[in-house]
Write a structure and sequence with these properties.
The complex is a heterodimer of chains A (337) and B (227). With 337 residues, chain A is mainly α. Chain A has 11 helices and 2 strands. In chain A, a hairpin with a 6-residue loop joins strand 1 and strand 2 (66-67). In chain A, 49% of the residues are buried. The longest helix of chain B is centred in the C-terminal third of the chain and has 31 residues, at 138-168. The chains are: A mainly alpha (337), B mainly alpha (227).
Chain lengths: 337, 227
């Protein structure tokens, strides 16, 4: 979902814009260094691919609605973290400028959520898992877990941006609900990413991005910090709602001791009090449970999908006739550039 | 999302179509910033900008109905967010949640229509030429250029692949849709990769040096004719 103009407050727009501009510029520079001028051709076409892939609708089995791939982690796995972020940014720019989907001034916030956090943050989660497991199953499981987290983390970042636009007081509750809803939505993203990667790994495993091994010390540290940041954000996502009863306790104590008198007490006795007593503990526990169940589910699904990649089919050429859907439209006309 | 009807057609060209892309782009950005910066509860400036926008749509020669329909398709997201934000917005204490929510919806309606108007009167390649003139890095402009050019090619290819699949499978179960659609995406991705490499070799063969040249940018020898 793209944030339209003027849902976020002006300071948030400026701050996210600045972060996004810096991140986009850095990503563009790194991409240029790695791929030279070929980058523009490949990145442009891959951005068009992400845009087109987002048009494929996946029917939800329980509801008469459909969802689609976001593709941040898929792009990062295939092209590398920063190139993936740039591709997502390009998609967002065209969507905002030509389709009015997402505000122009909210481009920074959207790029922060769907580009930097989904691609770069998702890659920071994917890379350690891929290394730990190794091989094609490593790529698959890492990408699926990362895809799940990327949806979760972007939604939480969105919640924080909304909250910073004027209602910090309700942040824990919103974070809890966002985490709960997007833990389910993220399963869809993880499944699609896994299914797509399974087909790609069966046919052209050589196309999956692999970082050059000549990692210098600074790069290694940067990766460590990034990975740690991603992991701690992920943990915080599930612990933040749990911490909120404590927060309310603080307000309660504050009220008791007379810190919060006058105007403040009216606010505390308002609708928020109801929420904290009835709604909050449920959301918190459900969120923590959703985090645990989601991680295990995605991991197990990755294991199952990883087993079904048949090895040794890489030599068959670019299009695999056995993989579902790949044979469709494989006529000579479809290949003409 | 439908991709057609994006390139402005020359047939209904009004005065706005003939304006320089640098002017229309700057004006649209200025309009969006002005609308967003309008304080809450200030209905008069919003009304004035709405009238200005209506006037521009009127002289542009673009059917207002089509513009509104495309804008309305984006409104559910805005409505939902407005409903979430309005009750606890800091301004809601003074103005009441309804007026805050209405302001958010109205502002977003104006900015969405303004961007759609820009997209309808100024072709995307002219916007990109204007961006290049504003010293936006060449790498970004070229990437956007290529992305936009191949967006329709890939969307067509996706449509062909989906049609071919439909014509070969007589009844589709809903639970099959996921692996089949994912296979579709995977095949499209591989073809996009290969297409990218082919296109790059072909461009190198024609002397590509990393800059996009166009006959109808701001530096073009003569302005583009609407015919």
């Amino acid at each position: 979902m793209h944030i339209p103009d003027h849902v976020l407050s002006q300071p948030v727009l400026v701050a996210t814009g600045a972060i996004a501009l810096g991140g986009f510029g850095y990503g563009l520079r790194r991409m240029e260094r790695r791929l030279k001028e070929r980058s523009m051709v490949l990145m442009g076409i891959m951005a068009a691919f992400v845009f087109a892939a987002q048009m494929v609708n996946f029917p939800l089995l329980v509801l008469p609605a459909s969802g689609h791939l976001i593709g941040g982690v898929l792009a990062a796995v295939m092209l590398g973290p920063w190139a993936g972020a740039v591709v997502m940014g390009t998609v967002l720019i065209v969507q905002a400028l030509m389709f009015a989907d997402g505000g122009i001034l909210a481009l920074g916030a959207n790029f922060l959520n769907l580009g930097l956090i989904a691609s770069v943050g998702g890659y920071a989660i994917y890379e350690p898992i891929r290394r730990a497991i190794g091989g094609k199953p490593g790529v698959l499981i890492g990408a699926m877990v990362a895809a799940w987290f990327s949806v979760l983390l972007s939604s939480l970042s969105f919640a924080v941006q909304l909250a910073a636009s004027g209602w910090w007081s309700e942040l824990p509750k919103v974070l809890g609900w966002m985490a709960l809803v997007h833990a389910v939505i993220g399963l869809g993203e993880a499944m699609i990413t896994g299914l797509v990667l399974r087909s790609v790994l069966a046919v052209r495993p050589d196309l999956v991005f692999e970082e050059q091994e000549d990692v210098d010390r600074a790069r290694g540290w940067a990766r460590l910090v990034l990975g740690g940041l991603g992991a701690s954000l992920a943990v915080a996502a599930f612990l933040a709602p749990l911490a909120s009863p404590l927060d309310d306790g603080l307000e309660f104590v504050g009220g008791r001791l007379g810190f919060l008198t006058g105007e403040g007490s009216a606010m505390i006795d308002g609708p928020m009090a109801d929420y904290t007593i009835r709604g909050m503990p449920d959301v918190a526990q459900a969120t923590a449970a959703a985090g645990l169940i989601g991680t295990i589910t995605v991991f197990a699904a990755g294991l199952v999908l990883g087993r079904t990649i048949s090895p040794g089919r890489a030599s068959r050429g670019p299009i695999d006739p056995d993989s579902p859907g790949a044979g469709a439209g494989g006529g000579p006309g479809a290949h003409a550039a | 999302m439908r991709l057609d009807r994006l390139e402005p057609d020359g047939s209904g060209a009004g005065p706005l179509h003939r304006l320089d892309a640098r002017v229309t782009l700057t004006a649209a950005l200025f309009f969006v910033v002005a609308v967003v910066a309008t304080p809450f509860g200030a209905w008069r400036p919003l009304g004035v900008s709405g009238m200005l926008l209506a006037f521009l749509v009127g002289i542009s020669g673009i059917p207002a109905g089509a513009l509104l329909r495309r804008g309305l398709a984006l409104l559910p997201v805005v409505l939902m967010l407005a409903a979430i934000v309005a009750p606890s917005h800091p301004e809601a204490a003074e103005l009441g949640p309804w007026r805050v929510g209405l302001t958010i919806v109205a502002k977003n309606g104006l900015t969405i229509l303004a961007v759609l108007l820009l997209a309808h009167v100024t072709a995307f390649r002219r916007i990109l030429a204007a961006l290049a003139w504003f010293r936006v890095p060449t790498a970004l402009v070229a990437t956007l250029h290529l992305m936009y050019r191949y967006l329709f090619v890939l969307a067509d290819q996706l449509g062909r692949m989906a049609r071919a699949r439909r014509s070969r499978s007589f009844r589709g179960a809903r639970r099959d849709a996921w692996p089949l659609n994912a296979g579709l995406i995977a095949a499209l991705m591989l073809r996009s990769f290969e297409r990218g490499e082919r296109v790059h070799s072909a461009m190198l063969a024609r002397g590509w040096d990393g800059t996009i040249r166009s006959l109808d940018g701001p530096d073009s020898p003569e302005p583009p004719s609407p015919t």
